[in-house]
Amino acid sequence: MADWVTISSLATAGGTLVLAVATFQSVRSADRSAKVSERAFLAANLPLLVPSQLTDPVEKVRFQDNHWVKLKGGHAYAEATDHTIYFAIALRNAGQGLALLDRWRVDTNTTPTDFSTPPPDPGIFRRLTRDLYITAGFTGFWQGTMRDPTDPQFDEVRAAVKEHRLLMIDIEYADQEGGQRTTSRFAIATFGDDWLPSIARHWRLDGRDPRG
């Protein structure tokens, strides 16, 4: 004679197991969809700075001591006096999101940068003293100064500028919410009387490295 109590219990257990599996698959699918949506949202707000084109418009750059520069598209600027070193780079935001420029550093060490080179330590960067933003798809500029002759780097960098030597400038920036931080390394070098920038490397400081 059939034990209907046992059969009923087994049926209930089986149904519960099927429901649990279905729930697990549903949660995992929802989690996967959420991650895809998040990555799509982040990609839509990711800034990416590159040198602007030679045909891009002139940028007017004012430094706090009322030193003005007309910065042509696709150009950089470097000038050194006894007390101040000025820098500027004409940029284009090739990414999809607003770029908020935050800090920078200059380096006279021009060892070639490859994919194994780690990003520079943000702790050694210099903070910008003004807010600089570049809208997605548009041009803008970065500017920086060194104003302290007792700075350990000052004499070395000043000599490099005076001698028109190659310089590396790292710029750290983020999206409009301060996330997706990126450091881009620009090389600036002279061609005739002009300083010209080129991009050397991009480091993603937040999230996954697109190179794996």
Structure notes:
Strand 9 (167-174) and strand 10 (182-191) form a beta hairpin. It is elongated and about 100 Å long. It has helices at residues 4-43, 154-162; strands at residues 49-51, 59-62, 68-71, 76-80, 85-93, 99-107, 126-134, 139-146, 167-174, 182-191, 194-204. It has two domains: 1-43; 49-204, Immunoglobulin-like (Sandwich), CATH 2.60.40. It is built from two helices and eleven strands, in the order H-E-E-E-E-E-E-E-E-H-E-E-E. It is an alpha+beta fold. It has a five-stranded antiparallel sheet. Strands 1, 4, 5 and 8 form a four-stranded antiparallel sheet that branches. Strands 2-3 form a two-stranded antiparallel sheet. Helix content is 23%, strand content 38%.
What can be said about this structure in brief?
The chain is of the alpha+beta class.
Structure summary, number of beta strands: 11
Q: Any idea how many domains?
A: 2
Strand content: 35-45%
Order the strands across the largest sheet as they lie in space: 7-6-9-10-11
Q: Secondary-structure map with pairings?
A:
Elements: H1 4-43, E1 49-51, E2 59-62, E3 68-71, E4 76-80, E5 85-93, E6 99-107, E7 126-134, E8 139-146, H2 154-162, E9 167-174, E10 182-191, E11 194-204
Antiparallel strand pairs: 1-5, 2-3, 4-5, 5-8, 6-7, 6-9, 9-10, 10-11
Provide keyphrases for this structure.
alpha+beta; Immunoglobulin-like; 2 domains; five-stranded antiparallel sheet; four-stranded antiparallel sheet; 11 strands; 38% strand
